[in-house]
Design a protein that fits this description.
globular; mainly alpha; about 300 residues
């Protein structure tokens, strides 16, 4: 039996970690009836007990992140967070598209509730990431530099904020182009592709670390989309939202659900961050190889 390469081993471990996270969220949703009506309202804010649904989701995320770290933490510092974020998509898949949420809503207040829901989900992701950061500071997890060979560089707070803003702006533009309907598969694909590509662009413009500055973008884009939909509810026929079409220039930003942004939006950004660092390291190695080539050395 051929031995797995490091690349194949890493991908296998990440796949196992993400699969287990999906199973954790799927069974947690099934056992605790989240959503209450499978195939419909996938917004945690619309559940009979929103606080309980968010608390259960947070606890499951922490467990999924811990399990993912045990399995794949040797690959990347935030591999457990990546797995936990992918797992959140399994919970979202138990529900329906945005139209099932707006059809059950009494009015535009549903978008304000979803904005709050996404902020809470972002805070839960931040809590999971902070746990990994503490393990890193205590030497239990290895940082990015020891995984991809890039030297850690100091970054001013302004550079980090700028990277987050670039990621959010580029991601918003891509979601506007890609989320043409609220169908579940399309919005999940739109959020994943947009977040991944936006992170590549943002890192190219401002290569900061750690990854938290890039996966903050999906939360920002989603909240902006929900607030725009809230403000423009009366400007378009509410029936447009209930049919899944929405209304206004920024309507595509409100088609993904909070769980969509928090799950594959985060996972896409983390994957984009990993890819960007790998590309940067490859460029550095190429430059070093060129410099060390005998033909490139000055003649004496």
């Amino acid at each position: 039996m051929p031995r797995l390469s490091t690349y194949q081993r890493n991908r296998l471990l990440l796949t196992i970690a993400a699969t287990l996270a999906c199973l954790l969220f799927w069974f947690a949703g099934r056992w605790f009836h989240i959503p209450e009506h499978p195939g419909y309202e996938a917004s945690l804010a619309l559940q009979p007990n929103p606080a309980g649904a968010l608390l259960l989701t947070g606890l499951t995320l922490l467990v999924a992140t811990a399990v993912g770290t045990v399995i794949a933490g040797s690959i990347r510092f935030d591999a457990g967070l990546f797995a936990g974020a992918v797992g959140l998509a399994a919970l979202s898949s138990r529900g329906g598209p945005m139209r099932s949420v707006t059809q059950a809503a009494a009015g535009r207040g549903v978008f304000a509730a979803m904005a709050v829901e996404l902020v809470v989900l972002g805070a839960l992701l931040g809590l999971a990431w902070f746990g990994l950061w503490l393990l890193y500071r205590r030497g239990r997890l290895l940082g990015d530099a020891l995984r991809d060979g890039l030297r850690d560089q100091p970054h001013a707070p302004g550079e980090r904020v700028f990277a987050a803003l670039v990621q959010a702006v580029v991601m918003a533009a891509l979601v506007l182009l890609l989320a043409r309907t609220d169908e579940k598969k399309q919005v999940l694909a739109a959020v994943t592709i947009a977040s991944f590509a936006a992170t590549l662009v943002a890192y190219a413009v401002s290569p900061v670390r750690p990854s938290v500055w890039y996966w903050a973008g999906p939360v920002t884009v989603g909240v902006a989309g929900y607030l725009a939909a809230y403000a423009g509810w009366d400007a378009v026929a509410p029936v447009a939202w209930k049919s899944g079409a929405g209304g206004g220039l920024l309507a595509p930003l409100a088609r993904p659900l909070p769980l969509d942004y928090a799950s594959l939006g985060t996972a896409g950004a983390v994957a984009g961050y990993w890819t960007s660092r790998q590309w940067q390291r490859a460029k550095e190695l190429e430059k070093e190889a060129t410099f060390l080539t005998p033909a490139s050395r000055p003649a004496h």
